[in-house]
Amino acid sequence: MRFGLFGTGPWAHQAHAPALAAHQDVEFVGVWGRNAEKAAALAGEHGAEPYADADALIADVDAIAVALPPDVQADIALRAAKAGRHLLLDKPPAFTAAAADGIVAAATEAEVAGVVFFTRRFMPQIQQFVEGAREAGGWLEARVDHLGSIFQPGNPFGESAWRKESGGLWDVGPHAVALVLPVLGPVTEVTALAGPRDMTHVLMRHAEGAISTLSLSVDAPAKLEREDAVLYGESGVAVVPPVPWLPVEAFGRAIDALIGAANGGESPALDLRFGAEVVRVLAAAAESIEKGRTVTLA
Ligand SMILES: NC(=O)c1ccc[n+]([C@@H]2O[C@H](COP(=O)([O-])OP(=O)(O)OC[C@H]3O[C@@H](n4cnc5c(N)ncnc54)[C@H](OP(=O)(O)O)[C@@H]3O)[C@@H](O)[C@H]2O)c1
């Protein structure tokens, strides 16, 4: 599959580009970034070509991988889907449900495949945990703490304007929601509050009655950084296993999933519809914080 990469920031360097370059079924064609020098440097590291025009790169490939801020990604993904290109997007695929749904609609119309890269969900240990928890059933509640401290000196993720504005709800929130949704099922109600240091608490009711709570931040004091997730139910307590952080391997599995779907296989679990469902929940949490009330989802 011929791939174009959009984005030249830290995540493009750490995950997308090395994984595309390493994958045996990928021809890594080119890199687009708004900064031509950064695009040339990243493309050069991996034997790809730099592109100054995003649509020219879309035209030259079968699929795009995107490592850009969510709103910028949504625009490029829509253009690529309309041009008949497969989509390997990063989380969250957009900032609004309308934008995420627009990508789903365009991809469906063009009959192209799509995957959203929720890194942890592509780790085999987490995949097995989620499948086992789904089969076991009987869960009454879930609690996820995902607290980062990205504005420490030297942390590349602290440079993003959108992370400063949209915080943990939109940066680490997608991982938390993507973990809980497949086990507890669709969300029907969301209540959220935001406190100091970007501490955002999200309370969700799931269609079958379970309740989940998420504590999210990207600006927590360094000593409070943690990633913990626990399910509680009829059969007791299940702790989501800690896994090593291996983004290149995980991205390789996301590429496998996209190629499989593009070749007529099943739509991946982490497809564009799932990505849009995650965005709908996060947008409801943002609305709840803004309006000071519970938001109901259809
Ligand atoms: N799955 C995961 O675990 C994971 C982990 C990290 C990040 N991500 C996702 O990956 C994406 C990229 O993240 P990142 O950490 O690399 O930082 P980022 O700030 O989201 O993206 C940086 C890239 O976006 C470009 N950019 C910023 N604003 C732009 C605009 N208005 N128009 C065009 N390009 C723009 C930057 O160009 P300049 O260099 O010119 O500023 C740079 O190439 C994000 O969506 C993030 O959520 C996912």
Structure summary, number of beta strands: 13
Strand count, sense and barrel status of the largest sheet are: 7 strands, mixed
Helix/strand class:
alpha/beta
Distance between the termini: 37 Å
Question: Which architecture name of the largest domain does CATH use?
Answer: 3-Layer(aba) Sandwich
Q: Which regions have little confidence, pLDDT < 50, spanning 5+ residues?
A: none
Number of helical segments with 4 or more residues: 10
Level-1 CATH class name of the largest domain: Alpha Beta
Gyration radius, in Å: 19 Å
Bound small molecules, which ones?
A: NADP nicotinamide-adenine-dinucleotide phosphate
State the strand order across the main sheet.
12-11-7-10-9-8-13
Mean pLDDT reading: 97
Give the name of the CATH superfamily of the largest domain: NAD(P)-binding Rossmann-like Domain
- β content, as a range? 15-25%
Number of domains: 2
Series of secondary-structure elements, N-terminal to C-terminal: EHEHEHEHEHEHEHHEEEEEHHE
Overall geometry comes to globular
Provide structural commentary.
The protein is globular. With 298 residues, the protein is of the alpha/beta class. The chain has a seven-stranded mixed beta sheet with strand order 12-11-7-10-9-8-13. The protein has a six-stranded parallel beta sheet with strand order 3-2-1-4-5-6, with helices on both faces. The longest helix is centred in the last third of the chain and has 20 residues, at 272-291. The protein is built from ten helices and 13 strands. The protein has two domains: 2-120 and 247-270, NAD(P)-binding Rossmann-like Domain (Rossmann fold, 3-Layer(aba) Sandwich), CATH 3.40.50; 123-242 and 279-296, 2-Layer Sandwich (Dihydrodipicolinate Reductase, domain 2). Bound molecules: NADP nicotinamide-adenine-dinucleotide phosphate. NADP nicotinamide-adenine-dinucleotide phosphate binds next to α1 and α4.
